[in-house]
Amino acid sequence: MTVEHFDFSDHSHRRYNPLTDSWVLVSPHRAKRPWLGQQETPSKSDAPEYDPKCYLCPGNERATGNSTPNYESTFFFQNDYPAVKTVQPSLPANDKTKDTLKNRLFQTESVRGNCFVICFSPKHNLTLPLMKQQDIVKVVSTWQTLYNQLAKEAVEEKKPYKYLQIFENKGTAMGCSNLHPHGQAWCLESVPNEVAKEFKSFDKYKHEHNADLLGDYVALEMQEKSRIVFENDTFLVVVPYWAVWPFETMVVSKKKIPSIVKLTDSEKQDLAQIIKVLTTKYDNLFQTSFPYSMGIHQAPLNATQEELDRSWLHLHFYPPLLRSATVRKFLVGFELLGEPQRDLTAEQAAERLRNLDGNTHYTENL
Asked: Where is UDP-alpha-D-glucose bound in this sequence (predicted)?
């Protein structure tokens, strides 16, 4: 059967992700199918302001026996169970000059670093959309403080710190083991895979087009407008053209800002506003505390001029919910064995998010 007109909102197609040199299959007609799969439990906002059992609440004892101080604002400390450590034994010696099957296929390298927990607020029952904008500014300032501190330690104390990955897992659906408002920061002596792939793509694009990939992307999104969710003077929130998760978004600076520490006071205010508005829209979408994983991609610590030239500050938000507060997206089957697939187009998702209130949280009307 011949289809006379291709409809991006109804017909299958693939979209290219230039950041990671990958593709995503878009099948918008599949959104019409009935759902008989797993149903999640909606998140409820019934947590107390202080939980005596929470190791992140002020004054409480943590699992290791250390005590969390009676902090009154944003607070960070070294993770009691870090994924990487600053000091560890060296790997066994291996002659890598020999062309052996082990050297070809079983490659290993040591990795050192440090991990931190960042408490956004002393109040156990808050999340970023429920915090005041000025309190989110304090979170951004804490990110800057930690970045600068680790960069300084790398130089003055020869600590093995190269890249700081700041992220937040919000909600049990994203594997969060403690619902106190917090994020994490893992600092490694190497650049992680996802960031390294982006850097490689940035270099390739610059070589081929003599332009910044994200600079051109911001200009194109501002021209087309169909995937814009929200914007202010400094930042743009879009559902990326190549988004995998149903309501995935990217926060990207409109001009080249290589890292979080380069933000001015007014730009920090703009980032705080963007985070509050976006996460409020997320919660309002299905009237639930919306789960997601968020991460900041930026320049490495003590970046060379070449690394600064290729870096462009942006944040990825990956939320798993698909149709409601109880139906989530799974990356299984074809997604695991073939390539990522989504049912909702980026434009449809952006329109739904754009039309939501980003200033009033749904709980304020209950």
From this structure: 30-33, 63, 79-80, 169, 175-177, 184, 329-330, 334-335, 341
